[in-house]
Every structure is written in C-alpha cells, then in structure tokens.
Design a protein that fits this description.
Distance between the termini: 17 Å
Strand content: 5-15%
CATH topology: UDP-N-acetylmuramoyl-L-alanine:D-glutamate ligase
Shape: globular
Radius of gyration: 17 Å
CATH superfamily: Ribokinase
Number of strands: 9
Order of helices and strands: HEHEHEHEHEHHEEEHHHHE
Helix content: 40-55%
Number of helices: 11
CATH architecture: 3-Layer(aba) Sandwich
Number of domains: 1
Length: 274
C-alpha cells in the first residue's frame, strides 16, 4: 500500500526540507528530519529564504515563536515554494491564542496554496472559525477528540480541508488526517508524548519530509507521517527503563523513528478510513 511505501520513499529520495520553525524545538526538528531519512536546513533571514527554498524539495513553516522578522520571511519562502510547486506544510502553533498568531496563519493560507496544515484541534478550529479555545499551544479540553464525538470530528476535519483547500492533520489522543472526501482515524501514540516539548513540531517536520518524498499523494503521506510519529511514541515508551523520564523519552522517540521501517508501520499502524 502507498501509505506504508511512502515511508520508505523518504529514505530513498532523501528530500531536503527547508524549515522556518520556532527556536524552542529547532534542534529536535532537525534531528527528527534526519532520523526519518530526509535532510533539514534552517534559514529564516529574508535575504536568503527564497534561495534556500529553491534548493529544497519541501518547506515547513512553524509559527511557534513568531516575530516581525520571520513573518515576511515565511511569506517570501512560501511564495517561492509555490512558484516551484514544492509542498508546503504549515504548523499553526497557538493559532487562536493571540491575534498575531491567528492572523499570520491566515495570511500564509491566503498567500499561497498550502499542501498540509498540521495542528491540534483547537488550532484548526481557530483557523476555520476565526477564533478558538486554544490554551497556549495546547488544545482546550472542550475541543478534544474522543470516541463519543468522533463522527462529528471527522465531518469537521473534512469540512476544514475543503474550506482551507488543503490536507488537514489534527493530532491528539485520536488523530485525524483528512481531505474533503476521506478521513483517516489514527489511534497510535501515548499520552506521555504530550509531556515532551515539540512532538507536534516533530510531527510537522516528518509530514513535510513524507509529502516531499511523495508529492502526488499528500493525504496518504500525511497519514503515514502521523502514524509513524504515534507508533514511535508507543515503541519508545516500551523501551523506557524504570527511572527514565521525558528527556530520555524524547531521545528514544527520535531513535525509534531512525530505525522504523515500512514493515514496522504495517504491523503497528492502528487506523480506519471514514
């Protein structure tokens, strides 16, 4: 199936991914990009972002630590990626928490076609509705996806994909990856992943790498990336020793992704299609 083969395509094609990301998690983003088989490059100066984007095969924009210098750099990089038909992944960290974050995410979405938006449910709701219940960079408890509201959540994910004209990847206790017609419901992952700073940023980086390696299959590629991240969280947790905590857990997640194969995904992926 393409959904599993797409993981191996990252290692086969080794795409270079340009990241304009936040400084809290930039090192982990670089390492997880390398772990899955792609190559990272970080550049956010307005004077070189277009050139760097032209060298890369994909662009990942993360608004976690916005400032007035990086916003125009993100827009310029996005315009160059669109000109070259390179996939663009947007991680709207904290959209709904402040006017600046919400407006910047909307500005990027309106400037060029975005291939995939990866965020939590509150961030995606903020983009669709113009405001949200985001608690800092975390989803609000009232928004969280559960078995009880899953049908409604899948409908929302498809509607959001249609409205924003993109693939939507909503990550949380239950992950949803959707276009306007199909929704993957993914149940991989561990609750302890939420205690590691940057697992969402890492997931966006993997998503950018997987789509860049499989540009004709953005939905399947995004679903593969989300499954891989969740499964890595499960396998890494199993390998923790009794007194190891979240710092070691972060490293074990990256190590697991480095060793993860398409066969591992095929055996461990927990998903359905709606």
């Amino acid at each position: 199936m393409q959904i599993f083969n797409s993981w191996e395509n990252i290692r086969r094609k080794k795409p270079l991914i340009h990241h304009i990301t936040n400084y809290v998690t930039v090192n982990d983003v670089a390492n997880v990009t390398l772990a899955c088989g792609a190559s990272p490059i970080m550049a956010d100066d307005l004077g070189e972002v277009a050139e760097i984007t032209a060298l890369a095969q994909g662009l990942c924009l993360n608004i976690g630590t916005l400032n007035q210098r990086t916003i125009p750099a993100m827009l310029k990089a996005a315009q160059k990626a669109d000109e070259l038909n390179h996939p663009i992944v947007l991680d709207p960290v904290g959209a709904g928490a402040t006017v600046l974050r919400t407006k910047t995410a909307h500005d990027i979405l309106q400037a060029v076609p975005i291939t995939c938006v990866r965020g939590n449910i509150s961030e995606i709701k903020a983009l669709v509705k113009g405001s949200g219940n985001t608690q800092g960079v975390d989803a609000a408890p009232a928004d969280r996806i559960s078995t009880e509201n899953l049908t409604t959540a899948c409908t929302f994910a498809k509607q959001a994909a249609a409205m924003l004209k993109t693939t939507i990847a909503i990550t949380g206790a239950i992950d949803l990856v959707a276009d306007q017609n199909i929704c993957y419901v993914i149940r991989n992952g561990r609750p302890e992943m939420s205690r590691v700073t940057g697992t969402g940023c890492q997931c966006s980086a993997i998503t950018a790498a997987c789509i860049a390696a499989n540009p004709d299959e953005p939905l399947a590629a995004a679903a593969t990336a989300v499954m891989a991240m969740g499964l890595a969280g499960e396998l890494a947790y199993e390998n923790l020793r009794p007194k190891e905590g979240n710092a070691t857990y972060r490293n074990r997640i990256i190590d697991t992704l480095c060793r993860l194969t398409a066969d591992d995904l095929k055996k461990g992926a927990k998903y359905e299609i709606r």
